[in-house]
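General statements about sequence and structure are easier to judge against a single worked case. For one protein, we set the task of working out the structure tokens from the amino acid sequence alone. The sequence in question and its structure tokens are set out directly beneath this paragraph.
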Amino acid sequence: MSLQTAIQTNHLTKLYKKGKPPALDGLDLTVKQGEIFGYLGPNGAGKTTTIRLLLDIIRPNSGNATMLGMDVHSQSIELHRRLGFLPGELNLWDNQTGQQVVNYLGRIRGRLDSAYVHELAERLSLDLSKTVRSYSTGNRRKLGLVIALMHKPELLILDEPTNGLDPLMQQTFHQLMIEARDEGRTVFLSSHILSEVQAICERVAILRDGQLKAVERVSDLMRVQFHYVTVNFRQPVPISRLMSVPGVSELSADGNGLKFKLAGDLDPVLRAVNDQYIVDMRVQEPSLEEIFLTFYGNDVKTTPHQEPVKELVR
């Protein structure tokens, strides 16, 4: 175990029901200290199961894991003092105020920096004098972030952290994570939102059906980004007008509109139909799953410590 490793899993496996595919299947993953690491996959991929195993909330059927050089099971009590955790679903005491919750958890940890708590609440626009019961979903998420961050832990484990936050607060969250990284702390961020991890992560792991498919730099992953485009015209336009345009695929007609997948610039498309009256145009970003399927294909398999064969799908 390197001192530069924040999280290390070895063949970590969790099976909930016999005869069913494992929720997590032989996970081998390394997260370096001082990085913001994105853990990506569609809902049901096994992301939350991984986090519960790391926190010793559930036990694996096989394999093991360490965080900050400590075994997640045998040294869990000591380890948890050095962690900050935000679960996907946060259940707190509804009749307590946000401040009372913070004070209670601060006493349990043995230290509470009131000035830093105030700073976090102010930056997140969270009124700690209100009861948890009165908080909206977004404000409950903000309180969870304050609780996770308030003791400046060495390792943050965050499950869908921006769920319920408005765009302005998402930007504040991004800045808080960058500050944590710049202080040498580690962030493990589970999400199904590509734009979230694209904004702050350098590396991401892609999980699908309980299996780790790849660990990539975000810059490499986004090289294959594409969009779905719908162009509506005043009158029907034959699909033949766009069939030879570079980057256009999955082309179809829908009334007076043309729908297609575009990998590349939009300008060649507009030039190809520059004699037609365009009523409107919609550009839709692909989902994480769609980018994954484009990047790795349906059946690409990897083995531990081996890079996937990208040439198969390029």
